[in-house]
Amino acid sequence: MTSATNSSIAEISREEITKRLDDPTLVIVDVLPAESYAAAHIPGARSLPLAEIEPHARELLSDRDADIAVYCAKFT
Amino acid sequence: VGLLRDLGYTHVRHYRGGLAGWRDAGNRVESRDGAPEPIVEPTPALGPHARRPPAAVRRPWGAVLLDLIERQSPARLFALWLSVILLSAGVYWLAGLSEHHGLRADGRRVETSLAGFATAVYFSFVTATSIGYGDVVPVGGVRALAIAEAVSGLLVFGALVAKFVSRRQDELVREIHRVTFEERLDRVQTNLHLVLSELQAIAAMCGDESVHLERVRARLESAALVFASELRAIHGLLYRPQWAAEETVLGAILASLAGSFGALADALACLPPSLARTPTLDGALRSSARLAREICGECVPRAYAPALTVWMDRISEMASRIG
């Protein structure tokens, strides 16, 4: 479901995430709602639901240059 | 991703597979309380390496034992059952070396010969399955072993049977969840259609001078409330990573969402601002706009989104004008 509109967004592969699960320099962010995060998330991921990105991103992700991997459900 | 980048984060990348892709690949997921996952999790996590909640309180040994048995696979339980029987058979057989212990058949001592071993295995099975024909009887110390074997054999066998039953049950529960999900999707589609026709009907009353505006507002209010609750349902369904909606279904839902937003905007446009400014309508519109923004965020296929964002912008504009 890739279209031209989002081809500029960099992607990260599952393999890389798997490999760097224990690597503190990769921050994994779960943008699903908090209930979904509570039920299941990728190990080590932080919860940042879509609606809270704007107000709370700065508290949760202090380093703007950090390597960040974002995921949601599947719909892409 | 776009949102984060707008906030100044430079190295943001998107994992396209999402939680569903992560699970499908058989990777481990975590839950906040660390409890074992509900049935949606495929079997590996139920295996011997399943994560258990930290034992903060001392649990009774019975529960610990049951848990230990529960965690084994059927094959391992069967192997355990068999080895209990064969080990016991070996002990019965070797006990025959002694004058006062071992097995008696027809009142005679069972010898430590090959035939004697066959008798010991036979007795062991008859005991472990609690059949107890009584043609071979234990004498002396092995009586205690016979009792212990009967109890533990039944326990393990019972666990094995329960395992098969619950396996089937898990499948059924999963199936029920899937059907429920599809039914909810269907219902959402139907409800959305009704909301759309209602909103269009309201919008059509617009130019009609004979219609009382108060009544138009009441209808619009109730339609907006239903619409907001439908949006909430859609939001909940789409954010259920384990059940991905089919693309055609999702497309249909988003299309009627767009239609409803259009009709809602039309209906709102014909009400004078003084009438449209009610807390109920306001709240419904605001939560609709928020939910719509989330639904149309990055978790919905981009191909559908452009058509929707137009409506979304329009409705947020409308909501902000009212609020």
Q: Which properties best describe this structure?
A:
heterodimer; A: 76 residues; three-stranded parallel beta sheet; 3 strands; 26% helix; 16% strand; globular; B: 323 residues; mainly alpha; three-stranded antiparallel beta sheet; 11 helices; 66% helix
What does this structure look like?
- The complex is a heterodimer of chains A (76) and B (323).
- Chain A is α/β, with parallel strands linked by helices.
- Chain A contains three helices and three strands, in the order H-E-H-E-H-E.
- The relative contact order of chain A is 0.23.
- Chain B has helices at residues 2-6, 18-24, 61-71, 74-95, 114-128, 142-204, 213-238, 247-270, 273-276, 279-295, 305-322; strands at 11-15, 102-105, 108-109, 136-139.
- In chain B, strands 3-2-4 form a three-stranded antiparallel sheet.
- Chain B is rod-shaped and about 110 Å long.
- Residues 34-56 of chain B have low confidence and may be disordered.
- At the A-B interface, helix 1, strand 1, helix 2, helix 3 and strand 3 of A face helix 1, strand 1, helix 2 and helix 10 of B.
Strand order of the largest sheet of chain B: 3-2-4
Strand percentage of chain B, roughly? under 5%
Helical/strand content category of chain A:
alpha/beta
Sheet-strand content of chain A, in percent, reads: 15-25%
Q: How many strands of chain A? A: 3
Oligomer: heterodimer
- Overall, the morphology of chain A is globular
Annotation field: number of helices of chain A: 3
Mean pLDDT of chain A: 74
Q: List low-pLDDT spans of chain A.
A: 1-7
Q: Quick one: biggest sheet of chain B?
A: 3 strands, antiparallel
Count of alpha and pi helical runs of chain B: 11
